[in-house]
């Protein structure tokens, strides 16, 4: 992935192809929005024409109802029904009610009601349907006020035995002199008469009343169904006209709507988004195919150029590796393109300089080894010092000076532990022995000092780093116990779990405040190669543990002012025999 070939490929992808794709997508979105607005405007114009025709249709129904309501004979019939014989009523029905003609509707049903429960209708009306009609709340409310009218869509509950859906205009017949209602006319037309005006629109088209019920639709099965649960009906009910884009069943739809001013009904057009933008999608699909073909050709050309550049470089790298195996005792032949030949010439010069540097480094190394050998010869043999200390110790014991003998014995133990046995990794048992010698020596200064071990036998062979505990205990003595007025107490505890071994050193010293503890933790967290502003022994121990076992291990410190300090050494759980 870091080769020139891939860099050229991804640079082309990032700086040319991706911006082109983003620009192409942005232009498509802008074009889609413009066309969407144009189509929305055209849809509103179509809805306006349909709305205009439906207004004329309903206006004609209203005019026909007014013609009946203002007919003197009809008015007399409603006021004095007993003055007309059945034959005269039949003639009146045939002469007035059945003679209404209009170019908007093919068939009508007209029913007259007076205030005494009498009725006259062009269709047969059963007694139970009549009682339901005149017993309705809306009927009583309309008869109680003059000049009332109401539009109905009769689908399930009908006035007539004919089960076809009808659109009904109910209007009170009011006497002008007294402003009292003398009756009511119900003027009805078939839903199919208004359906024809909706067929000219694309998609699903509905004429919906205020309750959300479909009054008419080119889709016959939808007539009488409720659209109140559709998500777009909230916007349709709230606005006069407009357009909305919705998502339904994983598809996008365009909803156009307009309001019939005569009765507040809504004309709703629902068109699939894909259908409206089919031509745009076809053009976009063609453009995408062309773009992919151009992209493939472009990528092939780019890869060819990248391959032509990287192939000589790979060959150069191969020859360089062969030259390295020969110890830089030969040079490469100058060949290839001008740029590659220039690199080979530069490399040959570099090889000569490297060969000279290797010779000088070898000579300097030999000189350093000679100097180190001379320095080792000048050093005092530590075993000679140990033997001398042992001789002095036994002389002290022979002269009954046990205190001096004990001090020399402890000092000898410390020196022997620091000299080591060829390895910096030792069993915990050996480290504890070294610590006992060190604390024994320190008791000369701290006579009340006690050292306690809470370590099970099973942990005595745990692998630890040599002289790991001495700097920690020295800190406890110098900075914790010495400033305190109490008898010093140091406790060592060990436990292991989940592949980790923890050795804890706890004292009863003066502890540390938050600021000092934070500073020490920051120094422990610093890089092992960075020298701290103030040298501290536990930093050395922490870095040795991390260098030996990894960054997951090391030292953790917990302390509170006047409440002692706890230092935890975290090591991998590993057994090491002494």
TrEMBL record:
Annotated compartments: Cell membrane
Segments passing through the bilayer: 7-27, 288-310
Membrane disposition: Multi-pass membrane protein
Origin superkingdom: Bacteria
Pfam families assigned: dCache_1, HAMP, HATPase_c, His_kinase
Keyword hit for Transferase: yes
Broad class of the protein's primary localization: membrane
An example molecular function term from Gene Ontology annotations: phosphorelay sensor kinase activity
HAMP domain residues: 307-359
Entry keywords, A to Z: Cell membrane, Kinase, Membrane, Phosphoprotein, Transferase, Transmembrane, Transmembrane helix
SUPFAM superfamilies in alphabetical order: ATPase domain of HSP90 chaperone/DNA topoisomerase II/histidine kinase
Matches recorded under Gene3D superfamilies: 6.10.340.10, Histidine kinase-like ATPase, C-terminal domain, PAS domain
This protein's GO CC annotations: plasma membrane
Keyword Protein transport tagged: no
Identification of the protein by name: Integral membrane sensor signal transduction histidine kinase
Native organism: Paenibacillus curdlanolyticus YK9
């Amino acid at each position: 992935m870091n080769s020139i070939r891939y860099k050229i490929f991804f640079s082309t992808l990032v700086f040319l192809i991706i911006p082109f794709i983003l620009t192409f997508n942005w232009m498509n979105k802008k074009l889609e929005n413009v066309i969407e607005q144009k189509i929305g405007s055209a849809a509103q114009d179509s809805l306006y024409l349909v709305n205009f025709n439906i207004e004329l249709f309903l206006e004609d129904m209203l005019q026909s109802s007014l013609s009946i309501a203002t007919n003197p004979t009809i008015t007399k019939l409603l006021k004095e029904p007993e003055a007309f014989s059945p034959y005269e009523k039949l003639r009146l029905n045939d002469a007035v009610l059945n003679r209404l003609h209009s170019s908007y509707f093919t068939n009508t049903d007209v029913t007259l009601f007076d205030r005494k429960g009498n009725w006259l209708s062009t269709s047969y009306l059963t007694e139970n349907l009549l009682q339901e009609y005149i017993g309705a709340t809306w009927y009583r409310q309309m008869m109680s006020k003059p000049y009332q009218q109401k539009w109905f869509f009769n689908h399930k509950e009908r006035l007539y035995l004919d089960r076809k859906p009808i659109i009904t205009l109910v209007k009170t017949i009011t006497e002008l002199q007294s402003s009292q209602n003398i009756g009511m006319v119900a003027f009805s037309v078939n839903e199919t008469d208004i359906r024809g005006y909706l067929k000219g629109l694309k998609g699903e088209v509905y004429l919906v009343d205020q309750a959300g019920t479909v009054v008419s639709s080119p889709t016959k099965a939808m007539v009488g169904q409720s659209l109140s649960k559709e998500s777009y009906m909230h916007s349709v009910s709230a606005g006069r006209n407009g357009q909305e884009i919705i998502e339904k069943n994983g598809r996008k739809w365009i909803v156009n709507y307009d309001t019939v001013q005569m009765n507040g009904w809504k004309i709703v057009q629902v068109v699939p988004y894909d259908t409206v933008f089919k031509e745009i999608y076809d053009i976009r699909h063609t453009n995408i195919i062309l773009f992919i073909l151009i992209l493939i050709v472009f990528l092939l050309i780019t890869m060819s150029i990248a391959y032509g550049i990287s192939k000589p470089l790979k060959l150069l790298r191969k020859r360089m590796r062969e030259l390295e195996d020969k110890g830089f005792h030969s040079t490469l032949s100058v060949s290839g393109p001008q740029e590659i030949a220039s690199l080979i010439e530069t490399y040959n010069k570099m090889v000569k300089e490297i060969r000279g540097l290797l010779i000088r480094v070898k000579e300097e190394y030999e000189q350093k080894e000679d100097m180190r050998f001379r320095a080792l010869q000048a050093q005092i043999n530590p075993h000679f010092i140990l033997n001398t200390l042992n001789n002095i110790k036994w002389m002290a014991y022979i002269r009954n000076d046990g205190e001096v003998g004990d001090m020399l014995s402890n000092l000898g133990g410390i020196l022997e532990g620091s000299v080591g046995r060829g390895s910096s990794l030792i069993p915990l048992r050996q480290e504890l022995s070294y610590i006992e010698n060190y604390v024994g020596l320190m008791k000369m200064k701290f006579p009340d000092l006690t050292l306690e071990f809470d370590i099970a036998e099973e942990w005595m062979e745990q692998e630890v780093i040599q002289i790991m505990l001495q700097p920690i205990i020295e800190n406890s003595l110098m900075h914790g116990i010495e400033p305190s007025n109490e008898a010093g107490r140091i406790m060592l505890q060990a436990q292991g779990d989940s592949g980790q071994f923890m050795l804890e050193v706890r004292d009863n010293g003066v502890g540390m405040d938050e600021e000092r503890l934070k500073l020490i933790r920051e120094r422990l967290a610093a890089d092992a190669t960075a020298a701290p502003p103030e040298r501290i022994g536990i930093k050395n121990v922490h870095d040795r543990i991390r260098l030996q076992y990894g960054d997951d291990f090391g030292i953790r410190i917990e302390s509170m002012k006047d409440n002692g300090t706890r230092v935890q050494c975290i090591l991998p759980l590993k057994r090491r025999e002494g």
